[in-house]
Design a protein that fits this description.
Blueprint: H1 9-25, H2 29-36, H3 40-47, H4 55-65, H5 68-75, H6 85-96, E1 99-104, H7 115-123, H8 131-144, E2 155-161, H9 162-166, H10 172-186, E3 191-196, E4 210-214, E5 220-226, E6 229-233, H11 236-252, H12 256-269
Parallel strand pairs: 1-2, 2-3
Antiparallel strand pairs: 1-4, 4-5, 5-6
């Protein structure tokens, strides 16, 4: 699952103030950026509210624009979003979920990623994220994992395509640590991990990855994610169809015990 931080209203406000002061002074983004240590494109991102300005940016912007009081006043209200707005609806439900079922086809889901694996996934993003933003998103992703150990913990059932477990995301050492993490989680009573072997000729998951989530009111919703964001699905017929597919795919995947043996074998190869 994707997650991260897009511009909050406070970031957009700061960016608008910064841009207005720069334009009133008659300076270009290149000139401004040279003083604060940002490229022109990075300055543009701050001005659009898409990038959190660093403390250095804030200090040097005030100097360059001869408006330290105004810049500091705008900076006091800066608040970075923990997650994108399109992810808010889902992540709020996830934090309270009673049960969560997932089928993963590209990367191991964020709820069980190690810090190193998460950093490698986010580091591969295009357009590229800067180091500060990657670290922010890693922390946000790891914070979601609290539902696995809270009291009572969420009941998590995962089906993962075998090829996802073979892709050396972050390198062999990072992958090995991630696979060992899965083995560790699979021993917990509230977590079931199954692998869909690559040699299965056909199965019910060809429509792509998805998640099913049970709320404290015992209501189920679906969640799917794509290039442009994610969508929470509440329509009863659609959720029912997702239930049918997940039930079938679990029956077609290896049982948890055999899945653990497969993962152990992969660890041994690294």
């Amino acid at each position: 699952m994707q997650d991260g931080a897009e511009g909050s209203s406070s970031m957009k406000m700061f960016g608008a103030v910064s841009r207005a002061l720069r334009e009133a002074q008659g300076s270009t983004r290149e000139q401004f950026g040279a003083h604060v240590g940002y490229s022109a494109s990075q300055v543009a991102m701050v001005e659009r509210g898409e990038r959190m300005p660093s403390p250095q940016f804030i200090a040097r912007a005030g100097e360059f624009l001869h408006a330290q009081v105004a810049i500091d006043a705008a900076a006091e209200h800066l608040e970075r979003r923990r997650y994108p707005s399109w992810f808010d609806d889902y992540v709020e439900r996830e934090a309270e979920a009673v049960s969560l079922w997932s089928y993963d086809t590209h990367v191991i889901m964020g709820l069980v990623q190690t810090e190193e694996y998460a950093r490698a996934v986010l580091g591969a993003r295009v357009p590229m994220l800067d180091d500060e933003e990657i670290e922010h998103r890693v922390r946000s992703r790891l914070a979601r994992q609290a539902i696995l150990t809270r009291v009572p913990p969420v009941s998590l059932a995962m089906v993962i395509e075998e090829w996802v477990l073979r892709r050396p995301v972050g390198g062999r050492a990072v992958l090995k640590g991630q696979l060992e993490r899965l083995l560790e989680l699979g021993e917990k009573r509230n977590i079931s991990i199954q692998v869909m072997p690559t040699d299965v000729e056909a199965h019910a998951g060809f429509n792509g990855a998805w998640t099913l989530l049970e709320t404290p009111k015992r209501e189920w919703v679906g969640y799917v994610e794509g290039q442009a964001g994610g969508l929470v699905i509440e329509d009863r017929e659609e959720v029912s169809a997702m239930f049918q597919r997940f039930g079938m795919i679990r029956s077609q995947a290896l049982p948890p015990g055999e899945s653990a043996k497969l993962i152990e074998g992969l660890v041994g190869e690294l």
